[in-house]
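User: Sorry, folds how?
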Amino acid sequence: MQLGIGLPSAVAGTTGKQLTDWARAAEDAGFHTLGTIDRLVYDSYESIAALSAAAAVTERIRLATDVILGPLRQNPALLAKQILSLDALAGGGRTVLGIALGGREDDYEVSGLDMSTRGEWLDSALPRIHAIWNGEGELESKVGPRPRGDGPSLLVGGYIEASLDRAAKYADGWTQGGATPDAFKESFAYLEQAWSREGRDGKPYGMALTYFSLGPDAKKNAEHDLADYYAWLGEETAQAIVDSAAKDADTVQQYIAGFEAAGCDELVLFPASSDPEQVTLLADAAGL
């Protein structure tokens, strides 16, 4: 199983230097992927902008939106071009578009969008993105820069069967946000069945997300950052997310072992602090 690390792009107050220092450190430490989480109404960096900054200071590490809230972008052709551009600027084959719906009402309200239509938007957007990347169509084939090497890859996020069905039909796999290894195993089994029903070759890629906060201020940082970021879910759920963050090496190892046993292809651990020293602490805890 591969290990990725999240950028601190959604940790409030993160500076540009912290973000780029973090990206360099993650590549040097041997992490497979740098990830971003996405939100509008928060003190966070926009995902593609953050990954572009990371791309400029790295050469090998993958760059993944895990996930970007697709319906907030509205124009799937523009989103397809943005990801093609990021991938080309990064050298080709490094970019992963993880895309999902999002459930925060304030993100949709500030965008002037109706949340009730977000599933319909994604159902129509995924084949458009797929067609543009593959050059399927007279206009679609002219949207550039055209993919270099393998080009970007596509993962769909979400917990419901409709999300897994979308992943099976249009994507290279699925990404799970913040759940247990057992939940991953159950959902991935459904995805494999849906993949087979769609007549897809090979097997889908499975990615999962969890949180970490290490060092002497581990608990304080988790409570400060994660409780604030997830306050919209209510105090009880936000506290459960705080409590679930890996705060020591043993818990990091338990998460790695649990997701690997569940058949996960890649686990991406997201931070609760923007201090680049967290990259070294996680790499040591994970045994990289």
Observations:
- The domain at 2-286 is CATH 3.20.20.30 (TIM Barrel).
- The first helix runs from residue 16 to 29.
- The chain is about 45% helix and 15% strand.
